[in-house]
Each structure stands twice: as structure tokens, then as C-alpha cells.
Amino acid sequence: MVGDAGLDVGAGMKGGAVRVTGSALHRAGAGMTGGLLTIGGDAGDFTGGTAASGAMAGQAGGIIVVSGRVGDRAGDRMRRGLLVALTGTGAHAGARMSGGTIVTAELGAEPGTLMKRGTLVAGRHGDLGPTFVPAGRYELPFLRLLARHIATTVPVAAGLIPERALRWRGDMAALGKGEILVAAG
Questions:
Q1: pLDDT at position 173, please?
Q2: How many CB atoms lie within 10 A of CB 152?
Q3: Fewer CB within a 10 Å sphere, N or C end of the chain?
Q4: What is residue 61's predicted lDDT score, i.e. its pLDDT?
Q5: Would the pTM count as exceeding 0.85?
């Protein structure tokens, strides 16, 4: 698609590929289970999140790549898949996540609110909620594998994966098996 896309572009995708050269409004790739959605500009709130108010699951597979920023609550109720936001995210990225991976240059405020499982990988982060606990500095083999995978599927994002990361576990107010990995200098 040449130009900008409206609401729900790629929502519910099961396979194939959709490429938007411009920006997209809210709920891009919401509830998708497969395929590749590429957005050349920014994407709105709930990108890779829930498809509608009251929906029980967000993205459950596939890959979403946004060249700009994604809005608030990107990856809300995400279950599986990969969401890459090259520039950054709004507040509450990965809220209520139960699986999957979000990779970005910068996480907005309060990422991972009520997250049960899943991984957020970033170069920098906004304010973390009080229910995330520091777990140390790591060189995780998972990061090397993720970097290799991203280099083959989303080459422009390969530089976003750090070799060493500071790890926070949480959200301890939920199941507490999620993690936020932030580049460690």
C-alpha cells in the first residue's frame, strides 16, 4: 500500500505480507497470527495489541516492523510473535503480555504493566513500574540467537539487540515471569 493506512491495517492477518509506505492509525496488526506487516512511518496505539475493546488476545504470531514509533499500549495482551519499533514506543508497551517479543530503541513510561510473560528489549527505557525488580547484568545466549534471527528477517533492526543487558523481572503484580532487557554500556 502506497501512502498512509487507516485503522486496523493487518488486523487478524493469518499469513502473507502487507507493506505500508506511510504511517498507520491505531490497532495495526492487532490480533494477527502470522505473516509480515511492515509500516514505513509511525503506527498508532494498540499496534500488535487487542483488535477490539474487550478482546482477550493481541498479536499471537507473525512479525510487525514499524520504522518509526508506535503509540501507547503497543503489544497489549500480546501472546506470541515479534513487534519491532525502530524508533520507540509510547507508554505501557507490552501491557498484559503473556508471550512474544517487543524490540525497540526506546521504551516509553511504565512498560510491561501487568505482564505475565514475554520479553521487551530496548536500548533505553522510561520510568519502570515499582513491580519490576532488577535481576542483574547478563550476557544471555538468547540475545545472540535473537540478533541472528532479526538479522535474517528484519536486517534494519539487528543493531537494536544488545550484547549485554540489564535485566528486570516482572510484573510481580501479575505472574512475574516477564522480563525487560535494556542495553548495558
A1: 93
A2: 8
A3: C
A4: 96
A5: yes
Alpha-carbon distance 180 to 40, whole Å?
A: 26
- Tens of pLDDT, residues 10-53: 999 999 999 999 999 999 999 999 999 999 999 999 999 987 77
Dig out the grid coordinates for 140 from the structure: 544471555
Instruction: Using the Cα atoms of residue 70, residue 172, residue 34 and residue 12 in order, give the sign of their dihedral.
Output: negative
Where does residue 155 rank: exposed (0-12), middle (13-18), buried (19+ CB within 10 A)?
A: exposed
* Other C-beta atoms lying within 10 Å of the C-beta of residue 141: 8
Mean pLDDT on 177-181: 96
Taking the C-alpha atoms of residue 144 and residue 54, their distance in angstroms, rounded to an integer, is 36
- Strand pairing report for 165-170 and 133-138: antiparallel
**Per-residue exposure over 29-65, b if at least 16 CB sit within 10 Å of its own CB, e if not:** bbbbbebbbbbbbbbbbbbbbbbeeeeebbbbbbbbb
Residue at 25: amino acid letter: L
Sign of the torsion formed by the C-alpha atoms of 152, 155, 157 and 158: positive
Cα radius of gyration (the chain): 15
Residue from 8, 60, 58, 55 nearest 34 by CA: 60
